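$ ./design --mode recover --in tokens.txt
reading tokens...
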């Protein structure tokens, strides 16, 4: 696995504190799953997938799928280094790269993790946007690995919304947090550029539809 910027002496303390804070907050949430049972059974039986989720809604999903050895794509930025350290402490493995820094290296690491038998997770609009726009890397990864793309969403009522490019959402302590899957999408092999764009739009529409439906069901103020 590749490494990001050189780690400072305080890095283990910061990542331990971040992981502890996420566990503590997540432990207070009441997780409600809708439209997930059938695919969760398939995953429990050994099937793998690429979880695709919008960047703004990833926090409760990171908590919900901790400890499963999922490989996550994380930016090579300084902030990404901290995020990678936190999620590795709660049971993920981190592939380092993004559309702006180390993109091909991150892609190659994810492909290697897939070969090792891991599921993958990507925020296809991260790390800097545009918000809720799927980038073509997700299509190419799914086409290469043969893993189905599983649209995933989270929602809660009255979350804290940060003043970030994506409007990052943090469910409040003791909130009901809803999680939903869309139908898995199987991207074919050997796509040309027109095919990549077609599937990019299809994945974006599926992820948007699942997120909007769940937000409505949860009574979230969007």
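writing sequence...
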């Amino acid at each position: 696995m590749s490494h990001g910027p050189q780690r400072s002496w305080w890095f283990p303390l910061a990542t331990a504190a971040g992981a502890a804070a996420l566990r503590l907050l997540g432990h207070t949430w009441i997780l409600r799953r809708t439209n997930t049972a059938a695919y969760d059974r398939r995953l429990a039986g050994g099937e793998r997938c690429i979880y695709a989720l919008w960047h703004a809604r990833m926090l409760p999903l990171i908590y919900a799928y901790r400890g499963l050895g999922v490989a996550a794509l994380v930016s090579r930025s300084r902030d990404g280094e901290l995020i990678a350290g936190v999620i590795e402490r709660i049971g993920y493995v981190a592939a380092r790269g993004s559309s702006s820094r180390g993109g091909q290296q991150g892609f190659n690491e994810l492909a290697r993790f897939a070969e090792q038998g891991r599921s993958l997770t990507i925020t296809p609009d991260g790390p800097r946007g545009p918000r809720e726009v799927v980038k073509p890397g997700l299509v190419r990864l799914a086409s290469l690995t043969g893993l189905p793309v599983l649209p995933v969403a989270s929602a809660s009522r009255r979350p804290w919304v940060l003043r970030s490019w994506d409007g990052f959402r943090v469910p409040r302590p003791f909130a009901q947090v809803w999680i939903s899957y869309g139908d898995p999408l199987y991207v074919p092999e050997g796509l040309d550029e027109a095919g990549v764009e077609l599937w990019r739009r299809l994945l974006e529409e599926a992820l948007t539809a699942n997120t909007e439906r769940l937000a409505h069901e949860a009574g979230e103020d969007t």
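exit 0
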